[in-house]
Amino acid sequence: MVRVRAARADEAEDLTALVMRSKAHWGYDAGFLAVCAGELRIRPDEVTARRIVVAEDGSGSVLGLASLEGTPPRAALGLLFVEPAVIGQGVGRLLYRDALRRAVELGVRELVIDADPHAAGFYRAMGAVGTPDGRDDGSGDHGSRPGTEHGPGRLVRFEVAPAPLAGWARAWTGGGRAVHLGNVAEFNAQFADASLDREQRDAHHYACLAAFYSPDPAALVLPRPVPRGWIELVGRQLGWSEVEVYDGLAEGPCDPGGPGGPGLSDAVRARPALAALLTGAGLPLVPWGLTRPFGRLTGRPWEARELRYESKSAAHGLFGRILAGGGHPGIVLPAQWRADTRRAAIRILSARAAAGESSVLKSEHGVGGSGTTVLTPARVRAAGGVRAVVRRLPRGPLLVEEYVSGPGPDGGPRDLTYDGFVDAAGRPHEVGGAVMDVEDGCYAGATVGPGVVPAWAEKPLAAFGAAVGRELAACGYRGWFDVDFVADGAGRLAPTETNLRLTGPSIAFMVAARLDALRGAGHLVRIADRVELGARLPEAQLDELCAELARGCAALGAVFVPAIPTGAFEPAPWLGALVAARSTEVLDAAEALVRAGALAVGTVFGPAAARP
Questions:
Q1: Is the peptide bond preceding residue 217 cis, with omega within 30 degrees of 0?
Q2: Of 334, 495, 558, 607, which has fewest CB within 10 angstroms of its CB?
Q3: Cα(427)–Cα(360) distance, integer angstroms
């Protein structure tokens, strides 16, 4: 186990020798090293002033060192050197992350790094941003631009903005570690959503998102087995310490009280030792969403009415009451009609289609767009009439809603969402806005981060989302929520539903908060719901693919995190993925790399293994 501690003055000579060994590792000749020796020397009286720390192993051997120099708000990572024998084993990463943590504690807002060109790739992979004003030996500009990172003495300038964990993230779990319960199927089942199959295979795949229910998990509790290599890679990418994984706990169908087997919460309760361990650890227990079985597991009082606004018609009514109070000029509410019978739905839809109006047909409850159908007059004609469309839909009450035409202003994003939560004391917290990727009414991913939500939408989205949060708090709801919106061409936002649970965008927010604290502020994070794989992959090959994608993204200055690995074993295989970067250009490039790499795995195994 490697730990970081403050260096001692009596170690100065040994630390200088380590620095010189590390510098020599890159092949510099004796003459150049002699020139560097004076600048790289560590004197005993400088150890404290330069805030030097060392990384040492369990036997007390020093493996590396780092210094944090200067006066806030600006400081420099003056030294970061690792013993040649352990380069590439995570010591440099540990020291770098410790330096950022200490910088935050000191109040540093800008950290400068003048890096050896051989270390430039490391700093990019750690999230540092290259600048055009690189330092060198006087022969010209040697910043981070391609083609300038070579030659003795030429240093590459990087900058980082150290950041504390976001305030909302500290409020969500008290700023500490948490136990995450992947009860996605259990949450869905309580609504008897007719658009979901009884097995809820996708719900069990999406339970893997439990890895990201807070920025720093202590334990994951999952219904199905997950690959061992997956959580190890995620932990490395997000700088976690050890995470306990309890998987394969709910193998049957997902009806919490049905004959096929218990939901995840009851499966944990059926293992008293495990239940005592998880609930007695003194850590927050975070579910995907609230359920009666979760209430039994945690001793939390349960009232089903807390989730009444998970209903799309109830949410529509809530939106109308908020708007009736005024104060939201940028928000418009689409009309909605409830059709308790198929005949009523056909009558409403036929009249609207005949008038040239488009409609959105919804189930009362649905997940990720399941049970939602967009019906234009052209689609109605192509399907052979409204009756033919409705006949193919799941049974149960239907909601017919006015279709909001788009796209947003200047061809901007069409689907946006506001995320927030109500804490245990009933205080609402804003997390932020996101842009969603929605394909024909079905959620396919989301992007969060600075500048993602267009300026015209920021204030109305935040104001209305906060108003919904206050209403949810007043009615007794406690937990995460979002409000989804559709933008129209006039620059107005139409709220369409609330989700009283964690969501895909919430996962992106959690990862952004973690990466900002780990690598410096300013991350954009995109979650891609389903990345198509070119072939079904055994665990070992899946691990290899994910490691390769992580390396490829790091070379771009981006981060790849596999979010859902278990879909890789389906007959039509797929992978849930997160990518992060500090610019939309790099983010788009990273997503393209991931999608191309995932699809290309089919060519490795030949035509016989390719997807049907």
A1: no
A2: 607
A3: 34
Q: Which two tokens stand for residue 83?
A: 């013993």
Q: CB-based burial of residue 419 (10 Å sphere; 0-12 exposed, 13-18 middle, 19+ buried)?
A: buried
Which residue, 248, 187, 185, is CA-closest to 220?
Answer: 248
Outline where 490-559 has alpha helix (H): 504-519, 539-556
pLDDT of residue 206: 94
pLDDT of res. 253: 54
Widest Cα–Cα separation across the chain: 89
Helices 455-474 and 312-324 meet at what angle, rounded to 10?
110
Each residue of 82-108: pLDDT tens digit?
999 999 999 999 999 999 999 999 999
Handedness of CA 225, 227, 232, 233 (dihedral sign): negative
- Strand (E) or helix (H) holding 312: helix 312-324
DSSP 456: H
Mean pLDDT for 306-328 is 95
- Whole-number Cα distances in Å, 204 to 190, 291, 504: 15, 16, 15
CB 559 within 8 A of CB 589: no
Residues 294, 300, 305, 310, Cα dihedral to 10° = -50
**DSSP one-letter code for 568:** G
Question: Cβ contacts of residue 27 below 8 Å, gap of 6+?
Answer: none
Two structure tokens written together for 70: 């200067």
Strand partners of residue 474: none
Collapse the DSSP code of 557 into the 3-class scheme (helix H, G, I; strand E, B; otherwise coil) and give the result.
coil
Comparing CA positions, the residue from 297, 219, 217 lying closest to residue 256 is: 297
DSSP state for residue 165 in the 8-state scheme: P
d(CA 22, CA 79): 11
Task: Specify whether the backbone of 532 is left (phi greater than 0), alpha (psi in -120 to 50) or beta.
Answer: beta
For 257, residues 6+ apart whose C-beta sits below 8 A from its C-beta are: none
- Nearest Cα neighbor of 509 from 418, 415, 378 is 418
CA–CA gap between residue 546 and residue 564 (Å, rounded): 11
SS3 338: strand
The CB density around residue 514, as the number of other CB atoms within 10 Å, is 25
CA–CA dist 173, 187 (Å, integer): 21
The residue to which tokens 């097995």 are assigned: 199
Residue (of 471, 524, 476) closest to 498 by Cα position: 471
What's residue 398's pLDDT? Answer: 87
Cβ 193 vs Cβ 506: under 8 Å? no
Q: Which two tokens stand for residue 277?
A: 């361990």
Give the pLDDT of residue 138: 32
Strand, coil or helix: what is 343?
Answer: helix
Instruction: Reply yes or no on whether the pLDDT at 371 is more than 80.
Output: no
